[in-house]
Amino acid sequence: MKNYLYKLIVVLLLTLNLFGCDKSQTKQTNNSALLIFMEYENNVEPYQTRLIVTPDFLRFDDGEGANDFVLFDRNKKKIFSINTEEQTVMSISEKQHDIKPPFELKLEDKRLPLGDDAPEIAGKEAKHFRFLANGEACYEVIAVEGLMPEVVTALKEFNRILASDSAMTFNTLPADMHNACEMSMDTFAVGRHLDKGFPIQEWSESGAGRHLVDYKEDYQPVAKLFEMPKDFQYYSVQDYREGKVSFE
Hints:
By secondary structure, the protein is of the alpha+beta class. The protein has a single domain, classed as Lipoprotein localisation LolA/LolB/LppX (outer membrane lipoprotein receptor (LolB), chain A). Helix content is 21%, strand content 35%. The chain is built from four helices and 13 strands. It has helices at 2-16, 149-170, 180-188, 237-241; strands at residues 33-41, 44-53, 57-61, 69-73, 78-83, 88-93, 107-112, 120-121, 124-133, 136-144, 198-204, 209-217, 233-236. Strands 1, 2, 3, 4, 5, 6, 7, 8, 9, 10, 11, 12 and 13 form a 13-stranded mixed beta sheet that branches. The protein is globular and about 60 Å long. The termini are far apart.
C-alpha cells in the first residue's frame, strides 16, 4: 500500500505540474480557485467534478456547461441545489441543535508512512492519515497542510451546514443503524480531516473516494456562474420533509 500511495503522489504531481513550483508563494489577487476532481463510486464509472471557490460562494458541478449545480452562499450560510430539468431549487440552512450521539464516540487519527523519499507538493509535505471512530477505520486522506487554505476554510463552512442539517434527522434513525463511522462522518465530526490540510486524495472503507486532478489559484470565474434561476420553484429541505412541497 505504501508503494502504491507513493506512486500515486508522483502521478498527481505530474498531472498538476507541481514539481519545483512553490505555489504557496504565488500572489493571489482575488482569492478564487478552480479545482477538478476525479470521483469514484462502487459500480459506477469514474467521473470528473468541478469546484469553484470564491470569497462569497462555492459552486459544485460536473464541469463546463453543467446545468445542474450546488451553490453555497457563504454570506447567507445557505446551500442551494439547482435541478434544471425539474426547474427546482432546494435550500439547506444552518440549524441550531443540541443533539448528542447515543453513545460515546472515540475519534482518532493515525498518520501512516508515505515513504522517506515521498515528494513535496507545492513545496509542502504530503501526509497520509487514517481516521477512526471507536476503533473502526472509517476513511483515509492524503493531505497537504498549508495548501489552498482559503479553500479549506470554505469547505469547513460548507460541511458545518450539512452537519447541522443531518443532526435534525438523526433521531429518526433506528438504533440498529447507529454506526460509529457513519455517525462521525455524517453528523458529529463532519470534515474533521480538513484540520490536516487540503485533501488531494480521500477514500472511505466502502471504496468511494476522489482525488485532485488539477487546480488553478487566482481563478477569474464568470459572475453568471453564481446567479440563481428566477422562475424555478424554491423550497427548503425542511419543507420537503414535512410534506409541504408539491411538484406539478
